[in-house]
UniProtKB/TrEMBL annotation:
InterPro entries membership: Peptide/Ni-bd, SBP_5, SBP_5_dom
SUPFAM superfamilies for this protein: Periplasmic binding protein-like II
Gene3D superfamilies, per the entry: Dipeptide-binding Protein, Domain 1, Dipeptide-binding Protein, Domain 3, Periplasmic binding protein-like II
PROSITE patterns: PROKAR_LIPOPROTEIN (PS51257)
Organism: Microbacterium psychrotolerans
Name the record gives this protein: ABC transporter substrate-binding protein
Amino acid sequence: MIPTRRTARRSSVHRLGALGATGLVGVLVLSGCTPGEAGPDATAAPDWELTAQTAEPSGDIDSFTWVSYSEPYSLDYAYAFDYADNQVLSNVCESLLRLNPDYTLSPGLAESFEHPTPDTWVYTIRDGVTFHDGTLLTAADVVTSMGRHLDPEVGSSWYSVYQNVAGIEQTGERQVTVTMTRPDSQFNLAMGGSAGVVESAATLAEKGADYGNSTGLVNCTGPFALTAWTSGESVTLTRYDDYWDESLRARSGEVEILFMTDPNARVNALKSGEVDGGWMIPPDAIAQLRGSGRGEVYFGLNTAVGSLIVSDLEGPLGDERVREALLMAMDRQGILDAAAQGYGEVTNALTTESVWVGASEAALDEAFDGLAEYPYDLEGAKKLIDDAGAAGEEIVIATAPLGNDFAVISQGAAAAAQAIGLKATIQTVSPSAYTALFSDPTARDGVDLFYTSWYLSSPDPLEMYGVLRTGEFSNYGGWSDPDFDALVEEAVAIDDPAQRSEVTAQAQRIANAQLPWLPLFEGPMTVFLGERVTGVAPSVAFLYYPWAATIGSR
């Protein structure tokens, strides 16, 4: 998620063995540098611009095909926490609110909401909506769907959204009231994502443990029904003709989403016309796809920041000076050029400006201007390592064969570590084992760093900093700072987005200073559309907005 920053801030155009000196040279060559050259700005930025909306379709289409880099882990909304899951689910299931491509919120399955007291949110459920089996959506379905996030037996990935919820109850024929233990501005903002999805209570009861897998499927209210899931191959979505929102009636009768884990296979399928489109184009394939004559690559709003997560603060990286030294030793512009072909910009923040919706000008100034920049400085980094007494200590960097960016970033981090006197080992794991790093603490045993492109699911930067509070599930390294926690707790209780942003900005500055995660770069969301199709909004909101419904015939 980059709307580039305002001109005043712009500096340029949501996861092997030890490397020696030759590894550093290899990364520099990839980025267009040589060891004797200054790291930053050695490669010209590519030519690209943001597109809010592609051309309107000329008409409907019988079907189209799409490609995904991975099979969904689950289509149970309680576990839909990654790109592969949500890009399917967003077309099939719906939330109480709708997160739009410009990252604003509008009514969804709740036609309206009220905030009558600081501790209550009241949702009026839309009348006349049907699930894909033809049954009517009721307030009871909403209560059941929301309540699953509080059930420890479910173990929802979205529990943190509900952590301040005291109760969820039906308070009218079409009314649901959520009572909080304390004021929580973030709860309602999260109702545009997976945390706000509504499923048929009857289906949840009927399917049990099979709900959301390739056997049980799902039964929701979106513009498409999930009609088939062939494990290891594809899912099929079929237009739901009784969909309630005529403005988002599906333009295609059917969509087949194919799973291709090999990036070369995905690119070849797009170039050959075997598939009509795909999200998240491998950066090293953008140029060839743009020149293929078989379609267009579009760049859109993103909320993701590419960062290295510090997952072990008991080891060398527990010293703030070592974290700072490692970031200073990484030629982040060179890594951006090599990993993402220069599509993006180096950042010192863990959020993009696109999520600071409603922020005050003063907050934006504090949040982004004047942050420590951690320039490429090997000598300064070596001194920090010496001051910390960390020379010769070892760090382990986990990676997986998920794309060129993972290889470049892990090699760049290892080379930087060794250049300043640390030992570094790259540990390559399978894609599924890499995914487990985000959900299973035991998978992170012995791992000091791993890469993520971490996106935000709501239009507020506080979502990111809520993750880094002491004890949070996704605070993978167990970082803790009482001043930071106090600021986040204060901001959570503030409803006004401008006022809240000014407190959040202070939290961003603490994270920038202490580096619990090491920010690398931000870049645009990418999508390829083949010659047959058009109509999509190229935005990271495809994870929650029914993007496939808007695609029709070119």
